[in-house]
């Protein structure tokens, strides 16, 4: 019997699996809608609607190029160009969800609290406690909204993280962080392989 192209695994009250097929390899992410319903819910909605198909991993923040304090190490991805705008989400702090920014944690990028959307997410390289509520990365101390973790494919994430970056950028804060060759998300799908 042929294996289905993808197997949707929606467990009531449990985790969901998302597979990102990129030009550098496959990344499987476990998403926790029971613990971070707004952040995880919008991320899963973007997957279902195909907003990440054609999106990119475009930014790598490393010790050698970070302009914030304390320094962090992450890769950041975005929906495909032309994807419809998303409604900003109420902030889901780590104190509420119990999810911490550890190696492989997936979280929403944000400016002010309540401005995050699933249009931009990042994956942690190593433990990043400065991104948790009470951490010092943001002056407000509220941290970022973690909603999932990488199950398989951290070697792909680490390869993206090590990729060459451009010296210049459209904003000073991200100078030397924009990937010289963004890594395309060819397809994002609910489920994993059976």
Model regions low in confidence, pLDDT < 50 over at least 5 residues:
1-13
**Spatial extent as radius of gyration:** 16 Å
Label the CATH architecture. Answer: Beta Barrel
State the major sheet: 8 strands, antiparallel, barrel
Label the overall shape: globular
Q: What is the helix tally?
A: 3
Return the string of H and E elements: EEHEEHEEEHE
Instruction: Output the strand order for the largest sheet.
Output: 1-2-7-5-6-4-3-8
When the domains are counted, the total is 1
Fraction of residues in helices? Answer: 10-25%
Q: What percentage of the residues does DSSP assign to strands (E)?
A: 25-35%
Annotated CATH topology: Cyclophilin
CATH class division? Mainly Beta
Q: Find the structural class using helix and strand composition.
A: alpha+beta
Q: Name the assembly state.
A: single chain
CATH homologous superfamily identity: Cyclophilin-like
Terminus-to-terminus distance: 12 Å
Give the strand tally.
Answer: 8
Mean pLDDT: 92
């Amino acid at each position: 019997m042929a294996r289905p192209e993808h197997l949707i695994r929606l467990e009531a009250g449990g985790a969901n699996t998302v597979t990102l097929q990129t030009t550098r390899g496959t990344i499987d992410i476990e998403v926790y809608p029971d613990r971070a319903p707004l952040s995880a819910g919008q991320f899963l909605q973007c997957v279902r609607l195909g907003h990440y198909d054609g999106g990119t991993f475009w930014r790598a923040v490393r010790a050698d190029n970070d302009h914030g304090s304390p320094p962090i190490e992450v890769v950041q991805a975005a929906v495909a160009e032309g994807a419809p705008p998303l409604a900003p989400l109420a902030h889901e702090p780590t104190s509420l969800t119990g999810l911490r920014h550890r190696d492989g944690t997936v979280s929403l990028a944000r400016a002010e609290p309540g401005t995050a959307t699933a249009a931009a997410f990042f994956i942690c390289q190593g433990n990043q406690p400065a991104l948790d509520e009470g951490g010092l990365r943001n002056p407000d101390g509220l941290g970022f909204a973690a909603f999932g973790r990488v199950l398989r494919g951290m070697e792909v994430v680490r390869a993206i993280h090590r990729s060459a970056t451009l010296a210049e950028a459209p904003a000073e804060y991200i100078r030397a962080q924009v990937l010289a060759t963004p890594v395309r998300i060819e397809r994002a799908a609910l489920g994993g392989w059976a």
